[in-house]
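Appendix B, record 7
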Amino acid sequence: MMRSLSLLLLVALTVLGGSTEGNERHEQAKREFLSRSKRRWVLNTIELEEEMDVKYPYKITKMHNLRTVGTEYEFEIKGAGVKGVFSINETSGEVYVHRRLDREKTPSYELTFDILDKKTRKTIDRDLSFDVNVKDINDNPPMFTNQFQKSYDVKENTKEGDYLPVPLTVEDIDQEGTINSTVVVTVAKQSPAVPKIGVKKVNDKLHQLVTEGCFDYDVGLNLLK
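Structure tokens (predicted):
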């Protein structure tokens, strides 16, 4: 006959990735010079950190076009999800972001730029599109995603190293495959204290409780008294 022993466990999640705020938040715009002679555009490709703690609207780059010399012109910006998030000064070509970005909601934006003759309203050059990539920071806590029972039955002859019937499914919605989404699962508190219960990682999302000793019903019962 199987006898069961009750254990009170408090399982803790620890996130490994640190926040990239601080010095890195002053490096919001990563600029690489890019020239396309056919379109005669000169621009910067942009990578912006999410949740930047800056004063908005915040200048992220400046557009240029080599066909504007001697011409009265204006810039236009468009793209899915751009309205209310990005804008361009139609005269200077300065591009602004107007609010904090959330990579988990929108990991990238495609911006399209036109340059128009002010008098004729015709395009001076073909439009140009490029992506604004949102750089991940560690801004989301890891969470258990499976439902836990209040109690589990464990056989008295469960040996050291055996899995216990307690799956722990963990998810962190920060960028997958980075330190920001890497977590460590540990047993923070246990009653009674023996046999000791540990956690073994099965894969990136699944962990399993494992015994680090042998279960003894009579010993456990005395410890609970």
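Remarks on this record: The domain at 8-18+140-224 is CATH 2.60.40 (Immunoglobulin-like). The first helix runs from residue 217 to 224.
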